[in-house]
Write a structure and sequence with these properties.
With 344 residues, the protein is of the alpha/beta class. 40% of the residues lie in helices and 17% in strands. Helix 7 links the parallel strand 3 and strand 4. Helix 5 packs across helix 12 and helix 10 crosses helix 11. The protein is elongated, with a radius of gyration of 23 Å. About 3% of the residues have low confidence.
């Protein structure tokens, strides 16, 4: 007996693949009439919505590649499993391809497309400055997940993206420190320029200071040169040797965890002498001491929405689109309110 895919069920029901997927995942935004029809067609055709059945009929041309830029990024690990489940629910198979942060994700994606005849691509992490010439080698729909083409010249109709607004969220994190009475606020970043996520979050930091009428001070900015914890630790140690901020904004949870360790090794107590806030929401940051206060990215939502958009593009149901999602403040024990704000 031929095993049907979710696309076959959608065709028999005269509806979209995304509607069938919502029925499979018990989403509420499907009419009862359509839900009943889909379930009945599934029963009649002995449809089995799992990997073992679909693996018998998956062809190379049913592949969606997820190209992950950054081998050691713990946040990306949170998204990959959700993406795989969502891709599978749409009747496709996921081809996971990981590259280092120094490699070019567009070249890797173009090569995969040629080799595996991909249906579509999700770029998990990447540069913020694509040009039309660079993406010309990619001939299938693609979605940028966790970033968008902020510094590039690529037309918005050429690609899709799902991310947080890095500059706005960084500004929000620093404003939280200001609201808690902090005036001498440091920043732990990768670098101040380069058209990267670090630049965006650094600019958000500067924007919050200026909004709070606080003068930016370069001596309070620690550039680690990478997102690696060892580099973040070294940069924080150097910052604490040359200055005495009351608080620190780290552009990632892993860098913040390293900063907590650096503070402890410098004889500085967090949060009594140094408050720390970050952006990410890693599971690990719940278990450092003290628990990290952070702006938690909606990892599952970022992953699912990226797959939903790509599936919609493949089914010609939507055009390229761009989505910004908001973080959620996860209060831990790493930020303390100052009783008497310091002078700027």
């Amino acid at each position: 007996m031929e095993h049907l895919t979710i696309k076959d069920i959608a065709r028999l029901c005269e509806t979209s693949v995304s509607t069938v997927s919502r029925v499979l995942n018990n989403h509420p935004d499907v009419s009862e009439t359509m839900r009943t029809k889909v379930l009945e067609i599934m029963r009649e055709n002995h449809f089995v919505p799992n990997n073992s059945a679909r693996s018998l009929v998956i062809r190379e041309s049913d592949l969606i590649a997820v190209v992950v830029r950054g081998l050691t990024n713990p946040f990306f690990s949170m998204l990959i499993k959700t993406m795989e489940y969502a891709i599978d629910a749409y009747g496709y198979a996921m081809a996971l391809h990981q590259i280092s942060s120094s490699e070019d994700e567009l070249k890797a994606a173009a090569q995969l497309e040629r080799e595996k005849r991909l249906k579509g691509i999700i770029l998990l992490g990447g540069r913020f400055n694509y040009s039309p010439m660079e993406v010309a080698a990619i001939n299938v729909p693609f979605v940028c997940c966790t970033y968008t083409n902020t510094f590039g010249a690529l037309d918005e109709t050429r690609y899709s993206s799902v991310a947080i607004d890095d500059m706005a969220e960084a500004r929000r994190a620093v404003e939280y420190l200001i609201e808690n009475g902090h005036r001498k606020i440091g920043a732990l970043i990768e670098r101040t320029d380069g058209g990267s996520i670090s630049q965006l979050r650094y600019e958000g930091y500067i924007g919050a200071l200026e909004k709070g009428r606080l003068k930016p001070d370069n001596s309070l900015v620690a550039c680690a040169g990478s997102f690696e914890m060892a580099d973040a630790y070294t940069a924080t140690k150097a910052l604490l040797e040359r200055s005495n901020p009351t608080s620190l904004f780290a552009i990632s949870d892993s860098m913040a965890i390293a900063a907590i360790k650096a503070a402890a090794d410098s004889g500085i107590k967090v949060p009594d002498q140094l408050s720390i806030i970050a952006i990410d929401g890693l599971e690990q940051s719940k278990y450092c001491v003290p628990t990290l206060t952070t702006l938690e990215q909606p990892a599952d939502d970022l992953a699912r929405r990226s797959v939903d958009i790509l599936a919609g593009l493949l089914g010609a149901e939507i055009e390229n689109t761009h989505v910004f999602m908001e973080t959620r403040l996860r209060e831990g024990g790493s930020v303390i309110e100052l009783l008497k704000p310091n002078d700027p």
